[in-house]
Amino acid sequence: MTARAAGKLALAAALTVCGAVPAWAAFDATLPYPAEVALSEAGDKGYVYVRFPGAQRLYTYDLDPTGRSACNEGCMSARPPILAPAGSKPLGEWTVIRRDNGLLQWAYRGKPVYSMFHDAPNAPRGDGEGGVWHLVPYEK
Predict the structure, then answer these.
(1) In 3D, which of 6, 46, 45, 8 has the Cα closest to residue 27?
(2) pLDDT tens digits for range 125-140
(3) Residue by residue, what is the 3-state secondary structure of the chain?
(4) Which of 74, 68, 70, 98 is nearest to 86 (CA)?
(5) Are residues 99 and 81 in contact, defined by beta-carbon separation less than 8 angstroms?
């Protein structure tokens, strides 16, 4: 942990104890996340997770059952999964699932995550596609 991250944690803990911020804060930018993902500050919108490298926004798929990806074979060419290296372990709110082909994939808050092949950084186009694809939301 860097000195900056440790300082943020100490400040957040002190403010929580003093009652300045609620103890149930929904998002902590100091939590760890995978190397295949970057955390980007998006001004007054908050923070957003993006694919690294590439900076494409991340998506979840409503048809994924718990702990599995339903986006395999033909689906994964348009919606590349965010793959995890062999031996990856959970990090903060990030867990690892095993895909049908045996590869590992990152999941955020239990939902496998993907990018969209033709998305440009800062220009996601697939939110709501088919009523089942959704951007991982901004976090405040």
Answers:
(1) 46
(2) 999 999 999 999 988 8
(3) CCHHHHHHHHHHHHHHHHCCCCCCCCCCCCCCCCCCEEEEECHHHCEEEEECCCCCECEEECCCCCCCCCCCCCHHHHCCECEECCCCCCECCEEEEECCCCCEEEEECCEECECCCCCECCECCCCCHHHCEEECCCEC
(4) 98
(5) yes
Take residue 83 and report the two structure tokens written for it: 């793959």
Confidence (pTM): 0.79
Pairing of strands 83-84, 104-108: antiparallel
**Per-residue tokens: 10:** 């100490």
Cα–Cα dist 62/12, whole Å: 34
Residue 15 pLDDT > 50:
no
Listed by start position, the domains of the chain span: 1-29, 31-135
pLDDT digits (tens, 9 = 90+) for 35-70: 999 999 888 888 999 999 999 999 999 999 989 999
Give the CA distances from residue 21 to residues 16, 26, 32, 67, 91, in Å, rounded to whole numbers and listed in that order.
5, 11, 21, 33, 24
